[in-house]
Amino acid sequence: MFMDKAYKIAIIGLGYVGLPLAIEFAKKYKVLGFDIDQPRIEELCVGEDRTREADLVELQKLLNSKNESSGLKFSSLTSDLESCNIFIITVPTPINRFKAPDLSPLLKASEMIGKVLKKGDIVIYESTVYPGCTEEDCVPVLERHSGLKFNTDFFCGYSPERINPGDRVNTLTKIKKVTSGSTEAVAEEVDHLYAQIITAGTHKAPSIKVAEASKAIENAQRDVNISFVNELALIFDRIGIDTTDVIEAAGTKWNFLKYKPGLVGGHCIGVDPYYLAHKSESLGYHPQVILSGRRVNDNMGMFVANKVVKLMIAKGYPVKGEKVLILGFAFKENCPDIRNTRVIDIYEELHQFGMEVTVFDPWADPVLVRKEYGFELDNVLIDKNYKAIIVAVSHQEFLTLDYKKYKESGAIIFDTKSFIERKYTDARL
Length: 429
Ligand SMILES: NC(=O)c1ccc[n+]([C@@H]2O[C@H](COP(=O)([O-])OP(=O)(O)OC[C@H]3O[C@@H](n4cnc5c(N)ncnc54)[C@H](O)[C@@H]3O)[C@@H](O)[C@H]2O)c1
Fold this sequence. Notes:
Elements lengths: L7 E5 L5 H9 L3 E5 L3 H8 L10 H9 L6 E5 L10 E4 L14 H13 L5 E4 L7 H14 L8 E4 L18 E3 L4 H12 L6 E3 L3 H32 L3 H8 L21 H11 L6 H10 L1 H15 L8 E5 L15 H10 L3 E5 L5 H8 L12 E6 L11 H6 L3 E4 L11 E2 L1
Parallel strand pairs: 1-2, 1-4, 2-3, 4-5, 5-6, 7-8, 9-10, 9-11, 11-12, 12-13
Helix pairs in contact: 4-5, 7-9, 7-10, 11-12
The structure holds nicotinamide-adenine-dinucleotide.
């Protein structure tokens, strides 16, 4: 029966996840892209995108579409939501300063949707949460503000997002999508809906909780695996051998998993395990492996900074007052996203040693960096007499820098990504 339904889809939250989703659905259905951030709506309405995830030609085409049954509009007016019958929520799910889930954006979005919800509507959550969050935390808000009854009047789905910003190969439609629904029939309907845009196919999970848990463990697994090699990096530094060399040797065995050490930032891998841990703790189990992995990963920035200082002292540099250059501030390569970047840990540690720290990132927005982190980021590389250079992010632009020149002028070079030519580095993770 749902095959014939005329969907009007609202995507709530047009960031890294919401915008690509709105674009894909708009090729097949009428889509309203909604965000509370007015400047974001204004930029999207003129076909611009600060996340650099959207194909701007495609975006413009959808904005101009005169098609009766598809096309894209953007708005920050809640009244525009009233005509929609599918609501897909892609708002942030951060942690607070105590590393506990901060559900406020999710609950505010649920409250807003509750006020426009009608009989027969479906609310699908895509934001990463802990198992149980949709039905135990969001549904009561939807019921309260709509006066409607869950699974009688309205329904829910959960379909976790797996995109990888900056990755031009594994894009939204090419990644298999997990789907779920609050009843058998709704699960079918949600699955069918996503199958219209996801060419890689869908996987219908048996329940919303299973779908929520599947996303949480994808990121927690990656976090734990990286924490293992990060711990190895701490051990091998003391032994005096190169971690990448060891991993390369061990990786010749068929079942060795070749994870690389590094900073674990961003709002997914470094955050989602805390969601899972929170749920676990609420049920009386204090996770050991998940949280110890988090502790190791959260301390890598400090390790890098301290190692650089030791190398400088070994060279007879006074440290205090010396100029140091950090290459990259975004939480990952070839992407402007600075949320929860752990490069800040290196910056702050070096700053505490009294060094003059320059951070160069051609991708990140200096205005946002000033607002979020309170220092001036350089978008242009200025040559100074740097005594240390830290490759913190493997942006493609950093491959072609003249490391030979820096080395010849006495700079210590630390490569946290094992990314640049090894002969120029003094140490790497
Ligand atoms: N970015 C990723 O790589 C990625 C990948 C998979 C899953 N996720 C998850 O998807 C969710 C969204 O992440 P993102 O990276 O797109 O976040 P984002 O910060 O890029 O975008 C979120 C958008 O939601 C808007 N917003 C906040 N509160 C709102 C509200 N009440 N109503 C309407 N709009 C609101 C913000 O203004 C912002 O534009 C998070 O749960 C995240 O963990 C992100």
